Amino acid sequence: MFKNMSIRKRIVVMLAVVYVISLALVVAGGSYFLKRDVVREAQQKTDLFASVMSNSARYLHNVIRPKAEELVSEDAYFPEGGVGVLMLTEVARYIQEDYPEYIFRFASPNPLNPESLSNELEDQVISAFEEGEYETWKGFAKRDGIEFYAVAKPLVAGSSCIGCHDTPDVAHPSQVEEYGTRSGYGYLEGDVVGARFIYVPIAVIQQQAMKRIAYFSGAFSIFFLLVLFAVDRFVVSSVVKPIEHIVEVAEEISRGKLECEFDVKTNDEIKLLADAFDRMKVSLAKAMDILRQ
């Protein structure tokens, strides 16, 4: 089949094959690098969120808590002024009003607030923190069928935590009344009691990455089509038409019209072919003259 094609069609077919192969390589390579970009961008978003939360915790510890301790009596129940987990959870809720797809939560297998009960993946990560396997955990996770990139840091019980999480008898009565006595107690200073998790959805980032691949593939296709058109025009003007001219002149000469000329203006192999035909035409004319004599 390929042998029966014209030169022009052969070149077009070969360029089309090159286009398909190169486009597949471009898409595969682009997918690989863009997937890395997805992870990098997700890490940047989680790092930014984590930085906001960490600095909020520092402000609470260094400024708000000492001032609250001065102004509030020891018997008063005001956890918002000194409990970092509570304050950061509330800050995260405000952030989620603008970015509802992001999730920030403190998770624990033994939480005071039932909403903070850890799921299976979070239990595994917290256990790994207890074993000292990680200082920071990063990876992909699914929640409610949605894929997230997640970052977690261990939550270690400090001396300030024990007053609320030792036993129900030691805790403030208002706390016991609000949360009960079934969970959130028995903490020991220095123990890993949970972890802070930040979940960033990767669906939007993946969609952006796919759009980049689509745009690049479209631009590459347009560029290749322009190259294909330019090559086709070059082949037609520099190869096909000169050869067609040689064929036409040769047919005319075969009919006895020896005055026809092989007029080729290039200085390439086609010119050499035309010159060879010219010499053959001269030899043919001389042979015919000899036969006539």
Give the helix tally.
Answer: 7
Largest sheet, spatial ordering of strands:
1-4-3-2
> What is the ordering of alpha helices and beta strands?
HHEHEEHHEHH
Strand element count? 4
Helix content: 55-70%
> What is the CATH domain class of the largest domain?
Alpha Beta
CATH topology of the largest domain: Beta-Lactamase
| CATH architectural name of the largest domain | 2-Layer Sandwich
Task: Give the CA-based shape.
Answer: rod-shaped
Instruction: State mean pLDDT (0 to 100 scale).
Output: 77
Largest sheet: 4 strands, antiparallel
Class from secondary-structure proportions: alpha+beta
Give the terminus-to-terminus CA distance.
49 Å
Plain-language structure description:
This protein has 293 residues and is of the alpha+beta class. The chain has 2 domains: 21-209, Beta-Lactamase (2-Layer Sandwich), CATH 3.30.450; 224-292, no CATH class. Helix content is 62%, strand content 11%. It is built from 7 helices and 4 strands. The protein has helices spanning 7-71, 84-98, 120-130, 159-165, 173-179, 203-254, 269-292, and strands at 103-107, 137-143, 146-156, 192-201. Strands 1-4-3-2 form a 4-stranded antiparallel sheet, sandwiched between helices. Helix 1 crosses helix 2 (84-98), helix 1 (7-71) runs antiparallel to helix 6 (203-254) and helix 6 packs parallel to helix 7 (269-292). The longest helix is centred in the N-terminal third of the chain and has 65 residues, at 7-71. The chain is rod-shaped. The model has no long low-confidence stretch (mean pLDDT 77).
